[in-house]
Amino acid sequence: MLIISIMSHSALKKKDDDLEDVPLEQPSPIIGVEEDVDFDTAPIKRLCPYCNQKVITFVEEEMHPLFFMMALFSLIIFGLLSFILLPLAFLLTKSAIHRCSRCLQRIGMRQCYGLPKSVEDDVWQFRFGKCAVVMARLYAIILLSIIAIACLAYAWKGPALMSSQPLNYDKPLPTHLINATWDEFLDDCGGKVIVENYIHARAVFNRKYENQLVIWTGLYAGVKEVKGQTLWGTDHALNLFVKMSPTESYLYPDLMLSVSSQMLNNDRDLLLLNKGDEIRFKARILGMGDEVRMHHLHLVELAGTGEHKELGVELILRDSY
Fold this sequence. Notes:
Shape: elongated
CATH architecture of the largest domain: Beta Barrel
Radius of gyration: 39 Å
Order of helices and strands: HEEEHHEEEEEHHHHEEEHEE
CATH superfamily of the largest domain: Nucleic acid-binding proteins
Strand content: 25-35%
Distance between the termini: 116 Å
Number of domains: 3
CATH class of the largest domain: Mainly Beta
Structural class: alpha+beta
Largest sheet: 5 strands, mixed, barrel
Number of helices: 8
């Protein structure tokens, strides 16, 4: 028994010696991979510090946490123009997050934009994705100042510049009743006058008619209720269309009267008028028409005259003012 035990011990020792002589197989390195490469917006080969494996990262894009604040200020300053600027700002401010394709841990990040690290640097670098703008500090300050002044000028003068009104627009006069007739209005601000000289017609309208009360007579041509009314009422609950004489169009009404929700609730008979009924109305002039839009007034009082006249054709009612 002792001999067998000694032989068994010798055999095990020899087997262990044989295993020690066999070199362990080392994992083959990935050729062409640098451990200290910078992260980019595209997947790269990287050593994961969590699972200690060399992997090709996968990239997911995240929105910058300050993007909502920037969007709010953009809406306040630039108005509708911000809907053009915000998509560009989103693309420039998003971040590329690199994650390990094995353990899904976050191992790096690359911001798609970058600002100078210090204002004291002689050279400033602005990074936009894979592009960069490098310039001297003095020229960068001058360029940023010009952009800031342009933005402030747009925010201050933008609404006036985008308006279709001429630059010499006068403030409307206080409201009072004037004796101008429909014929006089056509001579001053009718469609033919607008086509010939819009600026002159607009100046006359601003000086003589805008925000003033008139009493005219015309033929009822139809109504359209305005959708999206609020609980507190509105000045445009109903649009009432009027065909005047002489008329400016064969297919369209000449005027559109806006009816407030309060007036509509107090006088539901407005909806009972028949097309062609002659009406006498008192209204405040709000807007001058053109080749596309009708003249726009706000109804104050309305009464039927008892007369009726056929319109002849089915007029096209359009809510344009």
